[in-house]
């Protein structure tokens, strides 16, 4: 059974998406030289730091769980990503596997490819380092933001990216609240009963707390210097979905775009992976220039779910209770990236029950 933590609803694999820096794509490499990366002494993220996002909690029966993660390491020449498949087998590093194999195992990707209307930003899956894949070129670190350009073999620089961040002090806080709040609270109240495996999560993380110096970051908002499409790097032909979508072109590629916009300002998209071709396609999302996936949007969506559950089922129903926990998690316990001290604490938790 796989349980996606509602506090981790935005994967780190999509961290390198958007910007408010402006500028057009001229095909030239205009990124700031490594020695001139703009940094602030009080920036929330610093060079040579590694941050981790615990993508998905996987419950193995009623006895153990695993928490695959994707790490992000900041270097002078760029941002690197890699993943680890399972705490129970720490040698199974994802950089030795294909993106498709990783998807089958955890349901998430290490990286995505990005396409603006004028340039392609694609990660080279054959080039790996000890830090993983080079996914972005770092340009700026301020007190509360990180800016970068998605990697492209053509050194394109039109799609500039910037995320505004919120820092949370996790010192002495419950680990279970920040990796899976609603699962932890539900398991605490109902235990392991029948199909409810949340009790496993509660028992494993019960009373475990972060040490002093543990912190995490929440992405407050993100914007794009120009519209772009984020695509998973696998191939398929989703013909059955096309009938309800609008067909157009995107930088010489066939694009099918949903006619319905999500409440967080994104639109589902299917983009041909090769120019001037009708197959295969990659699945992904279209991002406009205005802010998408903002913190307030996430809170609004959670509030709508709670209000709907309350109206339909009443306050005492478990579905309403779960919606209330979700709302609390989004407001107070959302962490997209954990620092090294926090990560060490999470990974030190024994993932099996006696």
Entry summary:
Keywords: Signal. With 354 residues, this protein is an alpha+beta fold. It has helices at residues 99-106, 175-190, 198-205, 239-242, 295-313, 318-332, 340-348; strands at residues 2-3, 38-39, 50-54, 57-60, 64-66, 69-75, 78-84, 113-116, 120-121, 133-142, 145-150, 161-169, 215-224, 228-231, 245-250, 253-261, 267-272, 281-287, 337-338.
Average pLDDT figure = 80
Question: What are the low-pLDDT stretches, counting only 5+ consecutive residues below 50?
Answer: 1-35, 88-108
The termini sit apart by 20 Å
Strand-pairing-aware structural class: alpha+beta
Round the Cα radius of gyration to an integer and report it.
20 Å
Envelope shape: globular
Tally the helices: what do you get? 7
Helix share of residues? Answer: 10-25%
Order of helices and strands: EEEEEEEHEEEEEHHEEHEEEEHHEH
Strand content: 25-35%
Biggest sheet, open or closed, and with what strands and sense?
Answer: 9 strands, mixed
- Give me the count of strands: 19
Protein name: Lipoprotein
Keywords: Signal
Organism: Acinetobacter suaedae
Signal peptide: 1-20
């Amino acid at each position: 059974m796989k349980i996606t933590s509602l506090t981790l609803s935005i994967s780190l694999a999509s961290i390198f998406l958007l910007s408010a820096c402006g500028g057009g794509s001229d095909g030239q490499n205009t990124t700031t030289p490594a020695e001139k990366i703009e940094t602030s002494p009080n920036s929330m993220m610093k060079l040579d730091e590694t941050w981790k996002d615990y993508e998905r909690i996987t419950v193995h029966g009623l006895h153990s769980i695993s928490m695959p993660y994707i790490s992000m390491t900041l270097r002078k020449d760029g941002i690197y990503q890699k993943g680890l498949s399972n705490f129970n087998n720490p040698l199974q590093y994802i950089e030795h596997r294909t993106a498709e194999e990783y998807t089958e195992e955890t349901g998430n990707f290490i990286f995505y490819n990005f396409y603006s209307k004028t340039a392609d930003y694609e990660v080279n899956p054959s080039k790996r380092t000890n830090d993983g894949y080079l996914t972005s070129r770092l340009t700026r670190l301020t007190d509360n933001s990180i800016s970068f350009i998605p990697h492209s073999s053509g050194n394109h620089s039109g799609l500039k990216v910037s995320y505004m961040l919120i820092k949370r002090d996790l010192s002495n806080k419950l680990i279970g609240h920040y990796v899976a709040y609603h699962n932890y609270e539900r398991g605490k109240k109902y235990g392991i009963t029948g199909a409810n495996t949340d009790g496993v999560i509660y028992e494993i993380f019960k009373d475990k707390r972060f040490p002093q110096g543990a912190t995490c970051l929440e992405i407050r908002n993100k914007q794009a210097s120009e519209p772009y499409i984020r695509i998973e790097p696998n191939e398929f032909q989703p013909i059955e979905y096309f009938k309800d979508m609008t067909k157009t072109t995107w930088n010489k590629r066939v694009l099918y775009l949903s006619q319905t916009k999500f409440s967080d300002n994104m639109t589902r998209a299917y983009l041909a992976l090769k120019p001037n071709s009708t197959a295969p396609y990659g699945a992904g999302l279209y991002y406009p220039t205005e802010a998408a996936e903002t913190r307030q949007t996430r809170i609004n969506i959670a509030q709508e779910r709670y209000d709907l559950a309350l109206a339909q089922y009443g306050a005492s129903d478990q579905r309403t209770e779960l919606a209330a926990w979700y709302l609390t998690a989004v407001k107070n316990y959302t962490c997209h990236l954990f620092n090294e001290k926090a990560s060490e604490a999470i990974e030190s938790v024994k993932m099996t029950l006696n």
